Amino acid sequence: MVDKDLLRQVALFSELDEEWIDKIAESAIMRELRRGDVLFTEGEEPDELFVTVSGRIAMVNRSVDGRESVVALMEDGDLFGEMPLFDSQDRSTDGRALETSQVIVIPYAPVRELYAAQPSQLWQAVALMARRLRNMDGVLADSVFLDVTGRTAKRLLEIAGDRDEFALPVTQEELAGMVGASRERVNKAIASFVKLGWIEQRDRRYAIVNRKQLEIRST
Fold it and tell me: Any bridge partners for residue 31, and if so which?
């Protein structure tokens, strides 16, 4: 049984009564992941969803020639793997740990029971799907309106958050997958930021020197 307080921090379960939060908590388990561990693969038949407790989990698509695109990053409190719960389709991406991580694993069965017993709880799921669609709209807009340099600036700012100094939690290949470009082009973009004096770089550690210019370049 996992901590009920962790589940209550997830929007999908935040309004459940004690009976249902207990039922879901009793069916759930905590899973520890090391960097590179795979939770699920594209095309796999699913029967559970996940909540990130710590670390980062990448949702990854692969091309026929083996290239990867990181379509989403799941961080603390993020729920993922829920789509097949509603459409009964196979997994649409790989799910892979980018660093040491903890996730809550929740079987679909009690969640389906919940929605059958209390259909009004489906509004939380609808809100989740709407947020997913809005995020995807933003990703599609970036791919159309931003060049590789602009998308690289945006991803670095997203990783940094409100910190001016940060360590890159992904490899150069994984960062390229998040940007949707080759490693060489992403490295060239980062080198241009260093040359312009917008960031400083030492190995995988970065310091933002001119956040305003990075923000301008990312829009």
Answer: 103
Please provide residue 201's backbone torsions phi and psi, each rounded to the nearest 5 degrees.
Answer: -135, 135
Does the domain at 146-217 match CATH 2.60.120.20? Answer given as no
Is 0.85 surpassed by the pTM of this model? Answer: no
- Topology of domain 4-138 in CATH is Jelly Rolls (2.60.120)
DSSP code per residue over 42-74: TTPPP-EEEEEEES-EEEEEE-TTS-EEEEEEE
Q: For the chain, first and last CA: distance in Å?
A: 45
Domain range list for the chain:
4-138, 146-217
Measured distance CA(207)–CA(75) in Å, rounded: 22
The alpha carbons of the chain give a radius of gyration, in whole angstroms, of 19
Tens of pLDDT, residues 83-135: 999 998 999 999 999 889 999 999 999 999 999 999 999 999 999 889 888 88
Q: Report angle CA 211, 174, 107 to the nearest 5 degrees.
A: 110
Round to whole Å and give the CA distance between 67 and 176: 10
Q: What is the pLDDT of residues 33-56, one digit of tens each?
A: 999 999 999 999 999 999 999 998
